[in-house]
Amino acid sequence: MHFSIAAALAAALAGPALAAPGVSPATVSKAADPGSSFKVDKLVTTPKIPPTPDVVLLVDVTGSMGSTIANIKENLAQVITTVRGDQPNAQFAVVSFGDLDDPNGFAVVQDMTSSTSLLQTAVNSLVADLGGDPDEDWINALYQISTGAVTFRTGSSRIIVLVSDAPSKDPSGGHTLEQAIDALKTKIAARVIGVNVSDLDGKGQATAVTSATGGVIIGSAAEEVSKAIVSGLKNLDVTVKPNVVSCDAGLTVEFQPTSTTVPSGDTVIFKETVKVAAGAVQGAALHCSVRFLLNGAPGGTAFVQSVTVRVNRVGGCDKCIPQPGQNLCHITTSCAPTPFGTMCLTRPGYKADGAADDDINVHWRLKWPVPGHEHRVAVKPGTSADTLCDPKHTGPDVCQEVVVADCKSTAAVGQGVPAQYDDNSRTQEVIAAGDRDL
Ligand SMILES: *[C@@H]1O[C@H](CO)[C@@H](O)[C@H](O)[C@H]1NC(C)=O
Q: What does the buried/exposed string (b/e) look like for 47-59 if buried means 16 or more CB atoms within 10 Å of the residue's CB?
């Protein structure tokens, strides 16, 4: 393979600083009407090394592997440090294999552990030895690892780094290449990285097992093996899947795509659609919590997203017709123009009788485009409005306990309050007759 590990590493190290792994934006906060929806683009930057790695170093210990094993001993601590730099909870195991006809056929030297010293001790104990005939028994080793020889953590990313300079016997220990591939995929969902010391892929077996498991083969000189392991870990695919942890009633989120697979380190864009149910509680703040799974496991707090939607109060905004005989406003209110059409307005400081402050279908305040009228309360035609607003709010803040309706403007933007508003004789009259000291 004409692939320069040195160049790939240099590119990885010297490349522009990428976004930290996680989801952006992590929080979405927006107001929306009941029955509406909106879209948000979510960028999920995946970690350079897939999450929660459980890495098996599967090392050929036959006679020809001496210099490669020496290199692994020397560089193991650096490999562990590099991997932990991207994924602090990475664990490793050390498994050796040779020829099953010899005593060194298969051994779990160190089961999965986070202890660097235990791993170093295990690697230091490896001795290149024996192995008379050219082919080794790594198909058996892959099969054994897939069927209980190594203890993997639940939800971990399983990676087997096969370091060898020769093809495997097939069948090996009674297991065919096909059976080993099937066990790797179905029993532990592990990916195999082949470190091709010289003739690993001599029979195409390494290509078969790495491509079937989503791994890679790295051609490498012996002294480059440790770098190759780190580089190989960085080239693995990661599947990103949004997963809704919880959503309040009335709020749902959907993602497009529902799942996607990219090389680890890449950034994925999900189109998120947030839907507010028609019956969502008006005025409520509704929450959803969504996490992004990486290879089926939670990616940690950086991959959790929170959505908050404040549900607009809709309704209210009932109009009146300012014509004699058609004006149905109660005598305590007057039909007056507003930027949102003519409505029955109360006297300043008054609100509807017997209505809850948030009963927007009976009375409401308006989002005036110019300041100074925010305190005015509008009521549904026919509603009597002889109730004093809460005395704890005064002046321009009076009646602020009554909710604001999101009426659609009927006046041109910037036009402000129609001139005739303040001239409305009936309003003035009512104000004069029943005004409250503000
Ligand atoms: C493995 O390495 C050998 C020797 O460097 C090379 O000839 C061969 O093409 C490599 N195979 C793969 C699949 O990388």
A: bbbbbbbbbbbbb
From residue 6, how far is each of 43, 53, 163, 211, 238 by CA, in Å? Answer: 30, 23, 18, 23, 23
Question: Mean pLDDT, 10 residues at a time, over the chain (438 residues)?
Answer: 39 48 94 94 90 90 89 86 83 95 90 96 90 83 98 88 94 97 95 90 96 84 63 79 96 96 92 95 92 87 95 86 89 92 93 92 88 86 95 88 81 40 38 40
C-alpha of residue 196 to centroid of ligand 1, in Å: 6
Domain boundaries 5-13+49-236, corresponding CATH code? 3.40.50.410
How far does the centroid of ligand 1 lie from the alpha carbon of residue 220, in Å? 8
Q: Does the beta carbon of 165 lie inside 6 Å of ligand 1? A: no
Q: CB–CB of 338/306 below 8 Å?
A: no
Amino acid (1-letter code) at residue 347: R
Does the beta carbon of 224 lie inside 6 Å of ligand 1?
no
198 in contact with ligand 1, CB cutoff 6 A: yes
Please give the DSSP secondary-structure letter assigned to residue 180: H
Q: Which CATH architecture does the domain made up of 21-48+238-311 adopt?
A: Sandwich (2.60)
| Cα(17)–Cα(15) distance, integer angstroms | 6
Element (H, E) at 184: helix 177-186
User: Which pTM value belongs to this model?
Assistant: 0.60
Matching residue, tokens 């097939």: 170
Our answer on whether the CB atom of 11 is closer than 6 Å to any ligand 1 atom is no
What are the start and end residues of each CATH 2.60.40.2310 domain in the chain? Answer: 21-48+238-311
Does the Cβ of 217 fall within 6 Å of ligand 1? yes
Contact 205, 170 (CB under 8 A): yes
195 alpha carbon to ligand 1 midpoint, in Å?
Answer: 10
306 lines ligand 1 (CB under 6 A): no
> Which atom of ligand 1 approaches the CA of 200 most closely?
1
Query: Which residues of the chain form CATH 3.40.50.410?
Result: 5-13+49-236
Residue 351: φ, ψ to 5°: -135, 180
Q: CB neighbours of 242 closer than 8 A, spacing ≥ 6?
A: 42, 255, 258, 259, 270, 272, 290, 291, 292, 293
Cα–chain center distance at 122 = 38
